[in-house]
UniProtKB/TrEMBL annotation:
It holds the Pfam family Phi_1. Belongs to the EXORDIUM family. This is Uncharacterized protein. Keywords: Apoplast, Secreted, Signal. The keyword Zinc does not apply. InterPro entries: EXORDIUM-like. PANTHER family: PROTEIN EXORDIUM-LIKE 5, PROTEIN EXORDIUM-LIKE 7. Its main location: secreted. Residues 1-30 form the signal peptide.
Length: 339
């Protein structure tokens, strides 16, 4: 459900304990579950199951962006290009659209519809006046969406059939549990708050608040090895901004989960819908072949300036995205896999 940090193998016993504790705290949706990929990749514990609900199949699926706080246009351009890349055939392989085709697209629902491969950014709203302040609670995200769809004079459309809403907040905005238990989350709106039930995701910019947690591997991992010294692999961000390139990773994670489990009753592993293990949760910290073991992110490409990436996007962009659970192969997989 939520994008969390990968942990090194030395913490295995602790991880297991944390997993058990998390299961015990299942009623708390946001329990801090630190997972490691080597526990699950190719392991029989993974039981990705379908729970009869819909997937996001609208073609196109309309994305509505809400820019919460004060945004730098250059940062917005990176995120817009990433979203435009999801369904653009123009980018060279391995591309963002290849990455989407090799995992989320392979999930279908009981109507026979697959997860969409076509997205359109159908509307944007700027909440530069911080309508709900600079310190948010999770539930405030629904009110922020509500405010955007009733805004005067330029409301965002309320699109219950093929809409998904993305609330993206600037580096100065704090969020309940952000940096501690999660880096982003997705859920669905309550009709009582927004008027209809639509899937949404929130992703924050961790650049100044906690890059070592939510923009890893573009900053030394805060928790690596359990000490305070930081560590792990540090990669140069492909668009030059750890906060924004970190947001791309989290946004990719949340979108993949939103698409395959929009109402939290479609695709997830584990027994409890209050703490579902979704297709991106299973592959935290894996960005290429060999990733996930010993804190290694995997084999990724390097640009001439040394920055790391694993997929190409529109406008000559490059991005780093985490691998996702491929239901056909039964393992984490990405566009840059060697086979
Ligand atoms: C749709 O999902 C099914 C079931 O996983 C898969 O076999 C098929 O390849 C998917 N279709 C596309 C176009 O990806
Ligand atoms: C990673 O790349 C190196 C160098 O090309 C290669 O020797 C190694 O086998 C690759 N690792 C995996 C797991 O594919």
């Amino acid at each position: 459900m939520e994008r969390l940090l990968p942990c090194p193998p030395t913490l295995l016993p602790l991880l297991l304990l944390v997993l058990l504790l998390a299961a015990a705290m299942a009623a708390v949706r946001s329990a801090p579950v630190y997972r490691a990929d080597y526990l699950v990749d190719g392991n029989q514990l993974v039981n990705m199951q379908y729970h009869m609900g819909p997937v996001v199949s609208g073609s196109p699926t309309n994305l509505y962006l809400i820019w919460y706080g004060r945004w730098d246009p250059a940062a917005q351009a990176v995120l817009r290009d990433f979203l435009a890349s999801l369904s653009s055939p123009a980018a060279p392989s391995p591309s963002v659209s290849d990455w989407w085709a090799r995992a989320p697209r392979l999930y279908a629902d009981q109507t026979g519809a697959n997860v969409t491969a076509a997205f359109a950014v159908a509307g944007e709203h700027s909440d530069s006046g911080y309508s709900h302040g600079t310190s948010l609670r999770r539930i405030d995200v629904q009110s922020i969406i509500r405010a955007a769809v009733v805004a005067y004079p330029d409301p965002l459309p309320l699109d219950p059939y093929s809409g998904a809403y993305l609330v993206l907040s600037s580096p100065d905005v704090q969020m309940e549990e952000f940096c501690r238990a999660m880096c982003g989350f997705h859920y669905f709106t309550f009709a009582s708050v927004v008027g209809v039930t639509v899937p949404y995701a929130w992703v924050g910019n961790s650049g100044t608040q906690c890059p070592g947690r939510c923009a890893y591997p573009f900053a030394p991992a805060t928790d690596y090895g359990g000490g305070s010294g930081g560590g792990g692999q540090v990669l140069r961000p492909p668009n030059g901004d750890p906060g924004v390139d970190g947001m791309v990773i989290v946004l990719g994670h949340e979108l993949a989960e939103l698409a395959t489990n929009p109402l939290v009753n479609a695709w997830y592993a584990g027994d409890t819908p209050t703490a579902p293990t979704e297709i991106a949760d299973l592959c935290l910290g894996v960005y290429g072949d060999g990733g996930g073991a010993g804190g290694f992110v995997g084999n990724v490409s390097r640009a001439a300036d040394g920055s790391a990436y694993n997929v190409n996007g529109v406008n000559g962009r490059r991005f780093l995205v985490q691998w996702l659970w491929n239901p056909v192969l039964g393992k984490c997989y990405g566009a840059n896999a060697s086979n």
